[in-house]
Amino acid sequence: MFKPDFVYYVCASYVITYMNESFFARFKNKYVISGAVLAIIIIAIIIAKNSNKALPFQFTTANMGTVQEIVSVTGTVSPVGQATLAFEKGGVISAIYVKVSDKISQGQAIASLTSADDQAALDSANASLADMSRTLTPEELAVQKTAVANAESDAVNAAHDGYVKALGAVVNYADQFFNNAQSVNPSINVYTQSMQAQISLNGERVAVSDSLKAWSNELTIGTTGSSASALISKSQSHLLVIKSFMSDLSNVVNSLNTGNSGLSQSAINADVATINLALSNLDTAVASVSGAQTALATALSNYNLKLSGNSSEFIAVQVAKVAQAQAILDQDTIHSPINGVVTLVSPNVGEFVSPGQAVFGVQSDGNYKIEANVPEADIAKVAVGDIGTTTLDAYGSNTFFGVKVETIDPAPVVIEGVPTYKVTSYFTNPDSRIRSGMTANLEILTHERQNVLKIPYRAVSISATSTTVRIVNGDGKTYKTVPIVTGLKGSDGTIEIVSGLNAGDKVVTYITS
Helix, strand, or coil here: 158? Predict the structure, then answer.
């Protein structure tokens, strides 16, 4: 392949050689003349091409402007305030006051349950409060004393009955699983999971003997007046010790199988039936003692309440009972927690609803937010208070809405193996076009530098030791490399230059050859 300089040299030599001949001789040779003319044309073409030859690089000019860092994510529009509502208690719906799409105010009633019983309880509490200001008549006082005496008698009987049932459950049923059961060194005679379990159960059996002995002694002491309360309370404590032992023993018996116990399946089934019967009898005793204890406490409380008349302490107690009854009645009606629009009404009047069953919904009207998951690579750039814009798929890419970052969740959410952080942004201006559930294409302006020197980022060369650019020299055909200090990197492909360049400098962006 011939180079242009070589062609130029050959053609020039050809012309010069023949120009040295006489005009007449050259004129006689028409081929010589044609060759000379052709050589002159070729030389002219080559000179023209060389004069228009493109530079071996591309460049741009450093100029002043604005550099912006923007984080782009996709999110979903949702109401600023929304609530799914349920009754705190179960019941039959007696009234529904709203329908879907109704505007509603904070505190406005949405629906109610049948509340006759709760209203009656409140009325009774209020009546008792009103009655506390008067003094008991002798007849009324006698009634209260009789109620207390009967409750004390029932408590004593329940303590005796509980002792008999507990003793029978231990001696007649549980003790068949121990050797020397009522001695100070009982030993369980069925398979247990560990030596520690054996030691624990043997110790519990000793504690049961001590508790039954103490209980028996307490029952032989006279039980008049306030001693009935003490007796029933101690009986409850003894039953707790015995019930704990029986439960632990039941776990051991129910874990037996033919492989670990050496017993036949029929023997195991019999043992399980035995321990279950013992527990059933013991549970009956526990319920009886507990009920008697509650009844006695109630009788004493009522007596003291009546006897004390208008005592400020007892009145305060009754006021609290009235407040409690009112709170229970209030649970029969659901109220809206916010101003907004009704979005859900699922039940009908007359339908039973369970506690916690979501049956109504409301959301704020006109106030919306965008929730978006920002990858960990970008989350450090985003801060509460950052502003931005968003487009909604429903209205295309040329309709913009202003937003502002309100919250950033501290805990990550892993999406397809990438940790992300939920960023919540509020719309800065209400707009009737915004709807819950719309897809939002969010651009958050995280940093901005105005009136700074900037160049395309592709013009910068970064190594482990330096950051440089190539500046075009004055001849426009060559360049030199100079160090620079950069600042903010823009999302549009530009970068801020802090030092090393001046406005108007031409920097190489691409080398073509």
Answer: helix
For residues 503 and 455, give the distance between their C-alpha atoms in angstroms, rounded to a whole number.
10
Separation of alpha carbons 276 and 269, rounded Å: 11
Cβ contact 341:103 at 8 Å: yes
Residue 315 pLDDT exceeds 60:
yes
Angle between helices 265-308 and 138-168 (to 10 degrees): 160
In 23-61, which positions are buried (b, 16+ CB within 10 angstroms) versus exposed (e)?
A: eeeeeeeeebeeebeebeebbeeeeeeeeeeeeebebbe
Buried b / exposed e along 191-225 (16+ C-beta atoms within 10 A): bbeeeebbeebbebbbebeebbeebeebbeeebee
Residue in 425, 475, 451 with CA at minimum distance from that of residue 80:
425
Cα distance between residue 398 and residue 402, in whole Å: 13
Helices and strands per DSSP (H, E), number in the chain: 11, 24
Q: Amino acid identity, residue 307? A: L
Q: Give the CA diameter of the chain.
A: 166
Residues 361-377: what's their mean pLDDT? 88
Give the E-state strand segments of 148-232 in sequence order: 178-179, 187-188
From the CA atom positions of the chain, what is the Rg in Å?
A: 48
Go through the chain and tell me how many residues it has: 513
Task: Categorize the per-residue pLDDT at 42 as very low, low, confident or very high, splitting at 50, 70 and 90.
Answer: confident
Nearest 10 degrees: Cα torsion 407, 412, 413, 415: 110
Q: What kind and span of H or E run contains 341?
A: strand 340-345
Model pTM?
Answer: 0.45
Could you tell me the CA-to-CA distances from 302 to 122, 151, 153 in Å, in that order? 18, 12, 17
Over residues 224-281, the pLDDT tens digits come to: 555 888 888 999 999 999 999 999 999 999 998 988 888 899 989 998 999 999 899 8
